[in-house]
TrEMBL record:
Protein name per the record: Membrane-bound metal-dependent hydrolase
UniProt keyword annotation of Plastid present: no
Pfam families: YdjM (PF04307)
Molecular-function annotations in GO: hydrolase activity
Domain of life of the organism encoding this protein: Bacteria
InterPro entries, per database record: YdjM-like
Length: 185
């Protein structure tokens, strides 16, 4: 079974080949796209994270703890404004304005920590279970696409890069049994 270093190395080596395939596909269909250095850098970041992301289902995977910490950033992004609005509309709490943002961020992080721990403890996250599936790769790619839409002109490129990164993990894991690379669940 490949470890973190193996998956990261495979991701680093395979990323240029992914770019060749992606650009060739676009040229074949006569689609013109302009990728900035930022687009390519973000694409690489999402690809390389995806190259080890399926090992979230392993309790001893180094990326598991790191992903939990990163997911709190998404929780802050999703919940903080809502919580700040609700707390500021409760005059009986009398929260000083200087504390409103830090309290809202802390509550958002607590919600995020609870959700991610609940999510990762679900039975579908047994090792080489759901996280090692095309469906998981698709969800990761879709989330990256959705978070990138409106922030990048090439959100579809970033989402496909994320998907391809997870697929590179499965290629490394299932090289001896390639039919498992495309399992749906």
């Amino acid at each position: 079974m490949p470890n973190l270093l193996t998956h990261l190395r495979f991701g680093m080596v395979s990323y240029p080949f992914y770019l060749i395939i992606y650009i060739s596909f676009l040229r074949f269909f006569k689609t013109n796209i302009s990728l900035s250095v930022l687009d390519i850098s973000l694409s690489y970041l999402f690809y390389i994270v995806g190259s080890d992301l399926p090992d979230l289902d392993s309790n001893n995977a180094p990326l598991r703890g790191f992903t939990k910490a990163l997911s709190l950033g998404f929780s802050i992004y999703i919940f903080t404004n809502f919580i700040m609005e609700k707390l500021s509309n409760l005059p009986q709490l009398k929260i000083p304005e200087i504390l409103l943002l830090p309290i809202s961020v802390a509550i958002s992080m607590l919600i995020g920590a609870g959700l991610i721990n609940l999510f990762l403890s679900m039975p579908i996250f047994s090792h080489r279970g759901f996280a090692h599936s095309v469906t998981f790769a698709g969800i990761y790619g879709l989330l990256i696409y959705l978070f990138s839409t409106g922030k990048s002109d090439n959100a579809i490129f970033l989402g496909i890069s994320a998907f391809a990164g997870v697929m590179s993990h499965m290629i490394a894991d299932y090289r001896k049994n390639p039919t498992k690379i495309f399992k749906l669940w």
